[in-house]
Amino acid sequence: MARRIMFIHGAWLTPLCWDQWVLYFSARGYSCVAPPWPYHERTVQVLRADPPPGLARLGIQQIIDLYAARIRIEKEPPILVGHSFGGLWVQVLLSLGLGAAGVAIHPASPRGVSPLRFSSIKATAPFLLQWGQWWREVLMSLPMFRYAFTNGLDPDYQEREYRRHIVPESGRIFFQTLLAPFNRRSPIALDFGNKARPPLLIIAGETDTIVPASVNRVNHRRYVEAGVPTDYREFPGRCHWTLSSPGWESVAACAAEWIGRAVPG
Question: Which domains are present in the chain?
Fold first, then answer.
């Protein structure tokens, strides 16, 4: 049985967001690793105070290549668990034949799945509509974090989590995602009919605004309609900040139970 898990974080975050999950799965006998994206290796405080010069030029292919290289040096293919953009990277990596299995938690949309919903447009409009953001690093504001990531949670908790976790991000990756429908060679173009793809579980949250559950349902349906079995679980009352918000253990338990079935000993 594969006992190695590679956790992949999403945009505006660092591996710090996986700390509770690493402890959870380590206690269950898994060896865990959570590599950072390029230019995300420093602490949250340092990244906020002095973003690395290369961050603004960071693109999707560079991130995918880093994780692909990390997976290839593992002794055995690890189980991949990703959140948000990290959940999209999991799907891309699995489509490349990398990883023993994958869990995509509230994943961003691959090419062929429209991310456009009223709530997702409202969540991202504050920076997407600003001129020149595609060549800059961008920092999510606290009001945006409240609406896009932690809607429905206690305001004091929202502010604490924002200060603890949120870092500047490359604006380029968001525009590459938006333009993917017009680019057949986009790094997030998947073969939904790839029957050799390792097992995949997509987890969605009912109240997620930036990646609504309706988007994840379409993502799941694309695989099923192409004849590739894919599992799906939707949690009521869960916003995008499902990794750390109260009740995160139920999401981790769902992933652990599925992994135990998908990658049997």
Answer: 4-262 (3.40.50.1820)
